[in-house]
Amino acid sequence: MTQETNANATAHATDAISIDLIIGEDGLARPPWAAGDPLLRAYYDTEWGMPVRDEAGMFERISLEAFQSGLSWATILRKRPAFRAAFAGFDPERVASFADADIARLLGDAGIVRNRRKIEATIQNARATLALRDGGSDLAELVWSFRPAQTPRPLRIAEIPVKSAESEALAKRLRAEGFTFVGPTTMFALMEACAIVDTHLVGSHRRATSGVWTA
What we know:
Binding site for Zn(2+): 200
InterPro entries: Adenine_glyco, DNA-3mA_glycosylase, DNA_glycosylase
CATH topology of the domain at 53-193: Endonuclease III, domain 1
Oligomer: single chain
Number of strands: 2
Order of helices and strands: HEEHHHHHHHHH
GO molecular function, one term: DNA-3-methyladenine glycosylase activity
Protein name: DNA-3-methyladenine glycosylase I
Structural class: mainly alpha
Keywords: Metal-binding, Zinc
Strand order of the largest sheet: 1-2
């Protein structure tokens, strides 16, 4: 094998696994965002990219993705216990009943993100969730109905999409159902988090572990 041929073979082999992955002390490959902070690492290893198929779970994810807009996910993750306490465990029925006094309470809660528009959006989205239920539909089933035929297979972080035709269609449908703070980029992030698409980098120890996608 010539030196040039050997170099090409090495480059091809390297290209089969993302060069953006970081190998941890445990020998597992993770993307940079999940390689350092213990909280993010645990979230990546056990939760992100795993299926969420129940109504309350999907409502929580939509709510937290909305609050994350403009902020880091680490900020939201650290505040998640406070969010759950403040929003009644993200029970759609209880959140849908929130009134002005609850909004004032939430605006005074330093444990969460005190953004009036996002708080009001969460309450509105709880009501929209119940309206779906009353119409014989289910929030989780609706979101999953926008699962694409294929999932991305990114080798590098730069190859991970920020939105898709399906996330744009999902955002449009949710808006039509009365939801807010559900733009196509936010909905793509939701789809990633819930395993509707698999954007784990090729070579990550979490790639194709959701049971939804096989490669």
